[in-house]
From TrEMBL:
It holds the Pfam family Glyco_trans_1_4. PANTHER family: SULFOQUINOVOSYL TRANSFERASE SQD2. This is TIGR04063 family PEP-CTERM/XrtA system glycosyltransferase. Residues 16-188 form the Glycosyltransferase subfamily 4-like N-terminal domain. It comes from the Bacteria. It comes from Novosphingobium bradum.
Amino acid sequence: MRVLHVLDHSLPLHSGYTFRTRAILKAQEALGLEVRGITGQRHDAQGPAMEEADGLTFHRTPGRPSGPPGVREWREIGALARQIEQVAAQWRPDLLHAHSPALCGMAAARAARGLGLPLVYEIRAFWEDAAVGNGEGREGSLKYRLTRALENRVVARAEAVVTICAGLKADLVARGVDPARIALSPNGVDFALFGDPPPPDAALAASLGLTGADAGPVIGFIGSFYPYEGLDVLIEAMPLLLAREPGARLILVGGGPADAALRERAAASPVAAAIHFTGRVPHADVERWYALMDIMAYPRKASRLTELVTPLKPLEAMAQGKLVAASAVGGHRELVSDGVTGSLFAPDDPAACAAALAALAARRDRWTETRAAARAHVRAHHDWAVNARRYLPVYQAAVENRLKRSAFATRGATNAPGP
């Protein structure tokens, strides 16, 4: 079976979105499927019209989004739909698999109708909620409601719908979508990418003052600095943590919209010397920073976005044998079993965050057990080599449903009364 994946952006750009896409396509290839990707106009990396990245083939949509709001998005949909049709005419896919946002889904729905192909639509997050979480939108605004309505329209047109977690599925069911039409494909990791972790870089550790008998634990976060990630809560927790663990240090790796505000907050902290910002680092260097960290902290704030959506980073951390402390929002509760595979604490609460980190630090005798339980959980439930198989019955059902609809339409036309 040939599957054309319709995407917002892809490799060689690096993001949680592109890493999930890479994992899906690689795992599907291993299962014997032929796969390609096509990106819309928001993929802003320079490159050829057809590009290979990490052994995967991606087609690009020419042009850049332009025009006033509303018109711009409609033009994007049209441009991507036309490009899907052109690629399909040459490559002949059996199915279109569109991934959120809804602009990709609507373009794929338009193209699927013209090509007579089945459509599977995968929702990784509700992008109206993501816009609120990023500080780029307001819940209940006209744009918010229009985005939600567009997504509902795509869902109605798709043969099948896939979500990454139970929270998103429950929200769709509450909107009236038949749960039988919704499959789950949870976030996962490619264990082929996670061998034995490298030893800590002694020179890097020394440059940060992480040496000595009383050093540690090292608390870490690696990712994008968005307001909903709650890194301000983590910074506020550090004085309370150091009161119990004087050698504790915090390393924040990455950047994003909240970067400047977080640096200002850290500089004003009474334990500013214990908080280190690295800025963005090359993807190839991320493992060096992971190797320095004992506990990965994910203090996401409570919101619709964080309650409904499961993140990828905690799974990657557990796969690498790291301890995980996370706020008890819905997205984290689906991934972490408190006291077994990690630690959960009340969101938006620096004292609760500090207490959880201090409790983990104090239980060094259980670190090996907790790390092993977390890694085993990820391998059992979030390994892409296994989870990619979830798509196979979804694809088969979508193809069969499309054939039934085509046959019904044909019979209807045949039996229609003459002039």
